[in-house]
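Task: complex structure prediction.
Instruction: return structure tokens for all chains below.
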Amino acid sequence: MVELETTIRNRAGIHARPSAMIAQTAIKFSSRIFLEKNGNKINAKSIMGIITLAASFGSKIRITADGSDEVAAAEAIKALFESGFNEELG
Amino acid sequence: MIGNEPKGFTVLDLLSLELKEQNALDLTCVAGRAGLGRQITVPDLNRPGLALAGFYESFAWNRLQVFGRGECAYLSKLDAEGSHGSVETLFSYDVPCCIFTSSLRPSVSFSEAAEKAGCPVLVTSLNSNEFSGRVLRILSDIFAPKTTIHGVLVEVFGIGILLVGDSGVGKSETALELIERGHRLVADDVVEIRCVNGSILMGQGANKVIGHHMEIRGLGIINITHLYGVGAIRDKKQIQLVCQLEDWDPDKVYDRIGMDELTTDILGVKVPMLEIPVKPGRNIPIIIETASMNERLKKMGYHSAKEFNQNIMRWLESENARTLYFSRDDY
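Output:
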């Protein structure tokens, strides 16, 4: 199991489009991937789940991945957060 | 795209068009039958008043020549004066046909000249105004750019949906289920599409003989009108949405939000398009029905995906404000 921490860098937070990007990246991996914020833990392969995190700008997110490709999966998701989803950074 | 002009649309074709009440032209040929094979090459009319008066510069000879009361009165004046020169000049051009409106009759001398030149003379009971309106509409339909597309055209909740995709992906089966659920078949397999008025795509079956038959693998040819009744079919329908069915490609990214709107180009008109991945267990007809209703909502100004996202953004903004407030040291 891999655990990484990241911060929301784009000003708008995790709305529908970033959430779709996360889910679409997550779905490429066979590992079980979760995002956690303030004790809420959701499956990173569910768009609606990710949205319900209410991850606004500056929130801290913990990414956990568990499975055969866990390292690559967690890194890929983290890279997405770091890039700010090609949106305006705060 | 197949040629813009119909291959040889003749005066005889115009006479033999099957038109319903509000479109009927009520034309009969009274002279110059020999010329019924003349081609109509432009979807336009001309009132030959100036020509009859002897002014033949810029004479639009290749259009349908429409004679109303004014032209007729002038013709009888010419007749009374015994001058037939300008009528003969008129027929020296290769005019497709002369049409007399309001049941007016050409004079004997005019008919003889037409007969000699082999130019058909038609009479309609409609007045010039009504006739012009109808014939222009009909001709613009006939001369509209057209193409044929391999697909199935169905009407779902009033929206014309063109199902396209590779052979065997399940277009016909999807259409059949939609018909079973009370929607309508317009055309199966070969859909003829005309661009009307430059912005409306009208789809219909390419062939009257094929009619509303469908080919279903394992069943063969079935007649939808007989099986499901006349309520299950439609002759033509505007294409408002294109659904591209394709086998589920695990490497392809399918739209999951619906905020980016894909369009496809048919005859220069942009039509909204959805790419719908097909795999066992996905009920495509239900998805098509939902797509249709969603399209209707969009037309009414409600865009589900956009509104959803706006709500999310507003919520995130308020969450953000709350966090900032509670993280201040001095409250």
